[in-house]
Specification:
Blueprint lengths: L3 E5 L6 H12 L2 E4 L1 H13 L8 H9 L2 E5 L5 E5 L2 E2 L7 H10 L3 H17 L2 E5 L2 H5 L5 E6 L2 H14 L6 H17 L12 E4 L5 H15 L1
Helix pairs in contact: 1-9, 2-4, 7-8
The structure holds 2'-deoxycytidine-5'-monophosphate.
Length: 222
């Protein structure tokens, strides 16, 4: 039987980079479910469809094809009607569109089977917001990865400064706090910790320590 690790948590806790490294070390596949929401957002914006519930959006879902696959480096590739969109879904516009469209119930329902099928055929670490609660409620290991808003804002601030951007720490922190509020208060699939999840707080851990911690939690609980 394949092993599933559900990894949920707020934006900026380091989920994707930590999970990618842990998956590699364990020989599991890392599944980034945010990329699927980003791909649906891209499909809608290409058709000028608003990211809200509508007949037009449902018709679009019935007519597109989204596939998840992996390249020879085990990196996830998302295909929209056969086109590799893995790169173009990473823009700030795509993030905004994904955030809005992920609140539409028919979009979440559409992506459910795709996510579940990945876990049937591979050992996975699946990264998202509702993996332990909705997508894989029977996952052998459920981890809720978090850090204080200040620690997450500090990391994001450093990343932006390294990219040469002129940013103010207080603005970045406010952004993190606002996003947390939106993610935890939306009506459908709000970010919340599964009751049977193990909380890993990375506030006082650096990247390598966080990876080690995740690997040891998975080994102890799988
Ligand atoms: O993790 P990310 O930033 O790539 O996710 C993009 C958006 O999709 C984000 O606003 C949250 C949403 N999302 C979700 O609602 N459920 C998931 N399982 C994964 C992402």
């Amino acid at each position: 039987m394949s092993i599933a690790v559900a990894l949920d948590g707020p934006a900026g806790a380091g989920k994707s980079s930590i999970a990618k490294r842990a998956a590699k070390a364990l020989g599991y596949i890392y599944v980034d479910t945010g990329a699927l929401y980003r791909t649906i957002g891209l499909a809608a914006s290409r058709r000028n469809i608003e990211p809200v519930a509508s007949a037009a959006l449902d018709e679009m879902l019935a007519s597109i094809r989204v596939d998840l696959t992996f390249n020879d480096k085990e990196e996830q590739i998302v295909l929209l009607d056969g086109e590799d969109v893995s790169g173009i879904i990473r823009t700030p516009e795509a993030s905004m569109m994904a955030s809005k469209i992920s609140a539409v119930p028919s979009v979440r329902a559409y992506l459910l089977d795709l996510q579940r099928n990945m876990a049937k055929t591979h050992h996975v670490i699946m990264d998202g917001r509702d993996i332990g609660t909705v997508v894989l409620p029977d996952a052998q290991v459920k981890i809720f990865l978090t850090a204080t808003p200040e620690a997450r804002a500090e990391r994001r601030y450093k990343e932006l400064v390294e990219k040469g951007m002129d940013v103010n720490f207080e603005d970045v922190l406010q952004d993190v706090i606002t996003r947390d509020y939106q993610d935890t208060h939306r009506d459908i699939a709000p970010l919340k910790q599964a009751e049977d999840s193990i909380v890993v707080d990375t506030t006082k851990l650096d990247f390598e320590q966080s990876v080690e911690k995740i690997i040891s939690v998975i080994k102890e609980n799988r």
